[in-house]
Amino acid sequence: MGLIPFLVFIAFFLGVPVCGIVLSAFRVADVNDPGIYVPSLANFVASFRGASWEAMQNSLQISLIAALTGGIIGLALAQAILTTRSKKLTAVVTVLTSVLANSGGVPLAFSFIAAVGNAGIMTGLLSLTDLGFTLYSSGGLILMYQYFLIPTMVMVVLPTLAGLRLEWKEAAASVGATSWHFWKKVGLPIATPAILAGFVLLFGASFATHASAAALIGGGGVPLITLRIDSGLAGGNLAGQENVAMALGVNMIIVALLVLLVYMPLQKRSLRWFQ
Q1: pTM > 0.85
Q2: According to the CATH classification, is domain 51-272 in 1.10.3720.10?
Q3: Domains of the chain by residue range
Q4: What is the pLDDT of residue 237?
């Protein structure tokens, strides 16, 4: 009985929109009577062709690189924090990561534009333009994504790394194992599920980012699936392709579900050693 309000909320604010997206994705105008819509897979076929397919590929590529970069840096940062053995620092980092991991949107884009845009402060100081760097590119998006991806990775793996018991290290040392052997045989096998879960989470966050990317590069420059959907629903050059945008939305939902299906068992497995 206690779950009924929650289930009603989910049904109205998640279930109904998803059903609307799916139904619209399977509807196309009848060639003989444009005012009538008939069931068809034409929208999905169009979503895997031309600019729409390019946007999907580009989003997957950027998300993969951004997740790998954020995952490696976040993992190294989390381990560095733990080596200080400072409880105060760990507590502060825990709070900061939870805040920064949920930061984004238009303010984040404008902050990066002010810092490393074409007329940014750091761009002038470091002569980034002479080095060929531009924020309004795939590399710029990947750089901006690190602002919330690295804290997310730290937030995910820090509890697991902190949970590696001192007794395990002492037991390994007592039989002559070096620090390298400990991490190879004990530490990494235990932490790997959490590391992979963090990477999957970063990939999903990068793939679904819209507001920050839209504010940074607008509708052009770097084709992304989220921007493509936005353009399709807003009309303009893509007027009449609203249902193709819905099909792209269904494709994104499928990717999100796959990310969730991979993340949940990995997260559950990572907690097995600490229960």
Answers
A1: yes
A2: yes
A3: 51-272
A4: 65
